[in-house]
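Worked example 3. Consider a protein that binds fe (ii) ion.
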Amino acid sequence: MQDSVRVCVPRFLQIGRGSVSKLPSIIEAIGSARRPLIVTDKVMVAIGHVARVTDLLDEAGISYGIFDETTPDPTDIAVQRGIAALREGGFDSLIGLGGGSPIDTAKAIAVMSQNSENILDYRPPSQFNNSGLPVIAIPTTAGTGSEVTHHMVIVVEATQEKISCRGEAFVPTAAIIDCELTLSKPPRITADTALDTLTHGIEAYVSEKRSLFSDRMALDCMRLVSKFIERAYHDGGDIEAREGLMLAATLGGLAFSNSSICLIHAMSRPLGALFHVPHGLSNAMLLPKITEFSLSSSIERYADCSRAMGLAAEDDSAELAGRKLVSGLFCYTEIMKVPSISEFGIRKEEFDSSLDQMAKDAISSGAPRNNPRLATQAEIVELYQQAW
Ligand SMILES: [Fe+2]
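Given these inputs, the predicted complex is written out as structure tokens:
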């Protein structure tokens, strides 16, 4: 538990149904964002989310540009293209619209266009605090929490290294949290992003870097996910459930951004880098197993998680509540048909030959040091094998 923490959050959080309509007034309030570049992807264009935003900007007489070339697992090359588009059009700010990838790309363009353009200069453990251009984040997936965090993940295209950058520079200036934008999410993405959110809550709460502030965010994050995850999975149009999960994602982002992620995220990232498992899904694959592994080292904390999620009764012993947490997490992944690593379609020989590298990459991210139970490289390999 940290005694003193510096909390870093966006200047504006516009939260609630229909919040996206407040975009012009947010732009006005920021002041220095007069000509934004919308950073998004082709799916957002196809399903009409980009048109929703540009209609608002047209009505308000705000000129803008559109960069729709972001990809899942954004790369340094995509960021370079975005910086070129920013300069060509003389834009002074970014609107990141979409899932974590477009928002991270917008954050990267905003910071790197004003500082070093070499992603390797942002490699941890260095923290980067020099701010860049204003960023307005508009999430459409309710998962990563990137709209409020001082993290972003960029892949180096040449080496496929996934760099998890940290620093106050990466906190967006504003975030618009509008659950109506998540209604189009299919069940698979709904489940995976919600389980990513849940992982943020749990890891922030058990992390060695936790604080009283992050605890509050984390507990409410877990409460909301457990209340609404199944409803949203079974009925994508359940607006109340969507609203709960959207707020949970933001709270989870605030929690881990001001505490830390731990072993689950550390082991999840190599699965994304090497085998292109989407971020939420790789966390979901690992969540129950690694929680089981870590349980005994912080039984009271995990028991709190279990009670917050309604899996254990208030008067259950910590041991019983902890066991109920693990079985509850296995239950979620079963109900929501989370595939195992093998079921995802990765080739066994390729997976086996990557185990040592994945374990090394997980350790070098630094996040396992915050986990309640420290894992050796051999234990990490074993956990990957169990999750296979
Ligand atoms: Fe995550």
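Take a moment to read the result before moving on. Residues 356 and 381 are 7 Å apart (CA to CA). The two ends are 33 Å apart (CA to CA).
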